[in-house]
Amino acid sequence: xxxxxxxxxxxxxxxxxxxxxxxxxxxxxxxxxxxxxxxxxxxxxxxxxxxxxxxxxxxxxxxxxxxxxxxxxxxxxxxxxxxxxxxxxxxxxxxxxxxxxxxxxxxxxxxxxxxxxxxxxxxxxxxxxxxxxxxxxxxxxxxxxxxxxxxxxxxxxxxxxxxxxxxxxxxxxxxxxxxxxxxxxxxxxxxxxxxxxxxxxxxxxxxxxxxxxxxxxxxxxxxxxxxxxxxxxxxxxxxxxxxxxxxxxxxxxxxxxxxxxxxxxxxxxxxxxxxxxxxxxxxxxxx
Amino acid sequence: xxxxxxxxxxxxxxxxxxxxxxxxxxxxxxxxxxxxxxxxxxxxxxxxxxxxxxxxxxxxxxxxxxxxxxxxxxxxxxxxxxxxxxxxxxxxxxxxxxxxxxxxxxxxxxxxxxxxxxxxxxxxxxxxxxxxxxxxxxxxxxxxxxxxxxxxxxxxxxxxxxxxxxxxxxxxxxxxxxxxxxxxxxxxxxxxxxxxxxxxxxxxxxxxxxxxxxxxxxxxxxxxxxxxxxxxxxxxxxxxxxxxxxxxxxxxx
Amino acid sequence: xxxxxxxxxxxxxxxxxxxxxxxxxxxxxxxxxxxxxxxxxxxxxxxxxxxxxxxxxxxxxxxxxxxxxxxxxxxxxxxxxxxxxxxxxxxxxxxxxxxxxxxxxxxxxxxxxxxxxxxxxxxxxxxxxxxxxxxxxxxxxxxxxxxxxxxxxxxxxxxxxxxxxxxxxxxxxxxxxxxxxxxxxxxxxxxxxxxxxxxxxxxxxxxxxxxxxxxxxxxxxxxxxxxxxxxxxxxxxxxxxxxxxxxxxxxxxxxxxxxxxxxxxxxxxxxxxxxxxxxxxxxxxxxxxxxxxxxxxxxxxxxxxxxxxxxxxxxxxxxxxxxxxx
Lengths: 287, 253, 326
What we know:
By secondary structure, chain B is an alpha/beta fold. Chain B is 38% helix and 27% strand.
């Protein structure tokens, strides 16, 4: 018996409604997270004022004067800045290798390595860097180890993203660039890479967002010290996400408030970076 | 009832602000082949998509005018009812790559619940494949994916898939344009016998005047979104009344 | 250098045809080697650091359930990772089971049902979901999800305790179920992105073919989902591997107790949450650091196996179904 049109119409309506409902359900948590971070974060920051919150060291046990996240913020800037700089210096040539020698085994191998590393749990990167830099080279928690760990976390992502951007450069542009007769090095870095600059920049921005937000690679590397400004690379230091992780577990209200305030600062950075990336390209790939 | 399987009345289509069809009208008597011919880019594919209501999917498309299937306006029906009754075969073979040959043909009857049992479904699949002149070549490997077929076989599989929903009207969009000559002949043959023996009404879009004359009972010459000339194929072919039609037959358009 | 052994080696790479090309390739090789070195270093570190505990306990470190840390007496120490391995797999499975319908729906809704005008802002939202740091999810899990899961889970355990899943009455909201739900929330945007990418690759002609047969919208979606099924499997597999490796968010909500239980209303532990919570004290014991690295080795192995399988599966499918040349 033919299935009646009415039954199929009903099934269609119900099915589509379920899909839409589930899709909405899957984004609701994020909206609630944003709401909570804003409400609690604003509350925490308002108590002391934005400027003091961003610059003063924390007093997690002092309800009268809880202080701010200054040292952690500076630590995060130091770690992310270093990580982005070093990761770009390695990721860009790696991506050029992937894109320029397309079809060769070395290009495919490099891409496969990068894709594998992208999916590696960041806790493993942190443990590896701990074993080498903390346990053996320096002999104690240090900021350098944190910067290296973050570099290794974002490096493969940035290499993949940049290689895709380079691959998107039209063949015509490539041929025109090469026809000018410059060395391959000049041709690629002066003419072809700039044609892909938006995509490469987006990769760097997303890398920055990840470097600023990662916690697990820092657990076993930087140590977590927030009382003063620790900029020395061979000494312990702190970072915003690590501070959130450590302070939220303390049974003291001021410490937890500091964590929420820090979360708002972190989310503001992430959202800002994402919007900037979105201005540059239509589709942002975060995988 | 009008006695016509398909009537197109003053069809006007705008795509992204560009007028593609500007008042197209023609009628297809039941169990005949109407060839819609014209140079490429003249709106033939758009016209088929309008009849099949595939343009519903394109938010940029504005469709005006009326299309009647056996006297009933397509605007009064659900789009999926329209598409089942007047189903379409496309220029490029497009079988579902993840389904076996059998499942490709069976997917339509399954959607519409046309078979009560596995045996009935087998019957429909066999009938459709035979009608598309593909049965003998694939009967022993119905479980294979379509990627194992040649381009021409894939196009006949697309035809069989369309036939299996038991349409009243078949809309063919240059079905032999990307197919080798041997397969093209088979497809043309299959279509003629479908019309003769199964009473299906066919709209056959082509940019080749020779093919249009060869396959059709009626000719519609479409040029730049307008119907320039239409009538029984023989008449139009032997005595084109419009100089444009003559030019098209001489291959000058 | 011309014609030397190095030159001959470099010329074997496709696309190297001149001295200029050779120099260019040579300059870029270190970047590629860095990636190789990182993977090898990771593997080397995890094997080297696991050796002490493995040479003492043998394979039991992966199959035993006892976790005994004794200060000052290395001979009395004993570490079994099974509860943590069990917890990692269990919570990740729960996460994937919940994320499956959510991520498929999210992908379909964005690709198929969202008007073009809204698509931009909606995909910004999902991008943001994927970019939100895990610590933020953890914070939310700790402060909102866990306390709100508690009454639900206690109700379930008092009314449906005959189901093994709810056999234990929860002592708090910090449970296996909470970790699973939190992981599901975190992995949904990621799995959805993988599915979306494949879905958007479906050629228009295939979509038109489905519609032209008279399929309803839902039926077309079903046919097209059948076509991208491998990407759904791969996306969920990758999400599973990520969930296994997820650390801070899970460690904040799972309760960290070394037990093996089918009851999702009980607290548990995962390998990564165990590492996160114990690593700070591990220095006081002789074998604990090594045991934690052995746990890392397990995550390493699970992640690598799932990733390689998923990537391989997708490639096969792209070649076969999508007709993409290898």
